[in-house]
Amino acid sequence: MTRRRKFWGWGLEGEGLTPAEQADLLRRMALRFGVAELKAVPPPRIEDLDLRPPRIEPPAGLADRITADPYERALHTYGKSLRDIVRVFRREFGPAPDLVAYPTSEEDVVRILDWCADRRVAVVPFGGGSSVVGGVEPAVGDGYAGTLSLDLGRLDRVLEIDRVSRAARIQAGVLGPALEAQLRPHGLTLRHFPQSFQYSSLGGWIATRSGGHYATLYTHIDEFVEGLRVVTARGVVETRRLPASGAGPAPDRLFIGSEGILGVITEAWMRLQDRPRHRAMAAVFFPDFLTGARAVRALAQSGLFPANCRLLDPHEAGEAGAGDGTRAVLVLGFESADHPVDAALSRALELCRDFGGEPESARSATDDPAVARTGSAGAWRDAFLRAPYAREVLVPAGVVADTYETAVTWDRFEAFYSALVETTERAIREISGHPGWVACRFTHVYPDGPAPYFSFRALTRPADTLAAWEHIKTAVSEAIVRLGGTITHHHAVGRDHRRWYDQELPPLFRAALRAAKAELDPRGILNPGVLVDPA
Ligand SMILES: Cc1cc2nc3c(=O)[nH]c(=O)nc-3n(C[C@H](O)[C@H](O)[C@H](O)COP(=O)(O)OP(=O)(O)OC[C@H]3O[C@@H](n4cnc5c(N)ncnc54)[C@H](O)[C@@H]3O)c2cc1C
């Protein structure tokens, strides 16, 4: 039997931490926060929910593509942010869509958008539903006759492969594993692996400018998009497949990162890669995070472009079992389908030594992905993949466990980093009386600056979790914008980052984006409230 997706958490029903693992996690967390016990909270069941009756009915001609089934409506109410988890466990499903549509072709998408425009029904495109910024929540205000969540999940095929140019035409609803499974027999890969890879889609990655596996060079999905097909409320836009172009502002770039407000991405031509056969990796220890950061800057500016270059501070490293928690760890890796990469790793280790880095023994391999699963680097990787399941245990128990991410130029980085750690700890202390736990790592690095990713935990009463999170989130987001960073390096804007995105965006650019929306979505039905308000 195929297992359903959890409407209340990460992954499939029956997947996640075992009861023993949950108990162990809560015991460790209680110990950290100095309380006697933290209790596991059972997730809600569909029959516990009191969903508002749908305000609209599907049109007869599309009835087999559209459903008002309560499980489907619940599954499409939220993404996977802390705010979402809290509201799910409180059984608050006020924003549930009235209907959920599963188009099986681009023509279906066109017909659904036409019907929604006629009836003034708001449409929220839904890929994997892994948004952590309120991007898929149909919270659109009262100006609409109803809401429809448009799930692209049945558009999940690789349609065409151009082996000569090494590219493929791919439907937007395909999730990461199904995409890679279809490319593997051809020896090809997209090699875009966000942490949410298993339950996020190609269209969602493009719509949010997701950040993947590569720590340098091809960091965002943007670099792999060769051409797009987008169904707008005014018709279909197809951009030309090109390796590059200097012909004016790029049409692709208008839709990459458009978060469902301009149209529904139905297909993309994506640049692919041969599967890597040569890998070399090492973990390097530094006495502290800022010393490691200076080494990473030298690496980022060296032209070596490691595929993996993730610097973990001592808290993050200790938590993941990568080291003993007293030193920062740099997880460094090179890979290639064509040539051995040991020389690049050797040079990178030399650079690290110049900054006092101490390498753990380096490993290299041809054709052996298992090499990534050993040592400190392997420990970190395992913890990384299990982390999404921990939040649905911790958050309902009253642990405010969340992350935020940004990017800033190197000239400002050290002051920026210190101010953000201090702001996060202060905000946590204000709501809970203790400094909590704050950790940082680099997810991506550029010659001109890093993308720091912060994790934090605080303990509150379960009833206060959301208010506590809002307090911390507001404090750090204000600091990020004030100190010259971006409100998001790869998690997108959605509804949750709107306030700060509005401050970051040049006002005339916002006006131009609103004009583009008015042109492509004149009735303002596409994901209202995200990025810009409809006219
Ligand atoms: C555990 C976890 C780990 C994560 N790790 C990463 C990470 O490593 N890197 C990263 O970048 N992000 C990460 N995220 C955030 C999230 O996975 C990304 O934003 C991802 O790109 C969303 O893809 P999705 O298919 O789930 O999109 P959804 O969540 O379904 O949608 C996201 C937004 O895109 C729009 N959209 C979706 N599909 C389409 C389409 N076909 N056409 C037009 N608009 C569309 C939606 O309306 C919404 O606004 C993580 C999230 C979680 C929960």
How many distinct folded domains?
4
Percentage of β-strand residues: 15-25%
CATH architecture annotation of the largest domain: 2-Layer Sandwich
The strand count comes to 19
Strand line-up of the largest beta sheet = 5-6-10-8-9
Shape: globular
Largest sheet: 5 strands, antiparallel
Q: State Rg.
A: 23 Å
Bound molecules: flavin-adenine dinucleotide
CA-to-CA gap between the ends? 47 Å
Structural class designation: alpha+beta
What fold name goes in the CATH topology slot of the largest domain?
Uridine Diphospho-n-acetylenolpyruvylglucosamine Reductase, domain 3
**Average pLDDT for all residues:** 95
| Count of helical regions | 15
Instruction: Indicate the CATH class of the largest domain.
Output: Alpha Beta
> Portion of residues in helices?
25-40%
List segments where confidence is low: pLDDT < 50 over at least 5 consecutive residues. none
Description:
With 535 residues, the chain is of the alpha+beta class. Helices cover 33% and strands 20% of the residues. It has four domains: 50-151, Uridine Diphospho-n-acetylenolpyruvylglucosamine Reductase, domain 2 (2-Layer Sandwich), CATH 3.30.43; 163-274, 2-Layer Sandwich (Uridine Diphospho-n-acetylenolpyruvylglucosamine Reductase, domain 3); 278-386, Alpha-Beta Plaits (2-Layer Sandwich); 398-492, GMP Synthetase, Chain A, domain 3 (2-Layer Sandwich). It contains 15 helices and 19 strands. The chain binds flavin-adenine dinucleotide. Flavin-adenine dinucleotide binds next to β3, α6 and β10.
